[in-house]
Design brief:
6-stranded mixed beta sheet, alpha+beta, 133 residues
């Protein structure tokens, strides 16, 4: 196998794609096939520090739609000292392993270029890319 593509429709209806390929030519062929076969609009998320991957998506015709920060924050009440405090109504805290299952492989991904805080939280600058309109 030289690569694989993955498409996931998020709860808000947007279709996000990801490609895992070892070689640029394989990435380009997978991107072309996905862009041809999947309904528009399509989106992907890229670690802004990963210049090679960002460049690959730009070759496929994607451009930066927006930039955002991703935060991974400890939520275990034993770690935070907040055992007695409940989240506000309508707020649900979901473990990373469950967000990865419902929101795709990029959620909860281990990030080496993120900022690590002493409380275990991490912050990653990433950008959401979409084809040019």
């Amino acid at each position: 196998m030289v690569g694989r593509g993955h498409a996931l429709r998020r709860p808000d209806g947007r279709l996000f794609i990801s490609i895992d390929a070892w070689h640029a030519a394989a990435f380009d062929r997978l991107a072309e096939a996905m862009l041809t076969d999947l309904p528009a609009p399509l989106y992907t998320v890229v670690d802004e520090a990963n210049a090679e991957l960002t460049s690959a998506w730009r070759r496929a015709g994607f451009t930066t739609r927006r930039r955002e920060w991703e935060y991974v924050v400890p939520t275990d009440p034993r770690a935070t000292g907040l055992e007695a405090i409940l989240p506000p109504p309508g707020v649900r805290i979901v473990p990373v392993r469950r967000t990865r299952a419902c929101c795709g492989p990029w959620t909860g991904r281990s990030v080496t270029k993120s900022r690590q805080a002493s409380d275990g939280s991490r912050c990653l600058r990433r950008c959401v890319l979409a084809p040019r309109v």
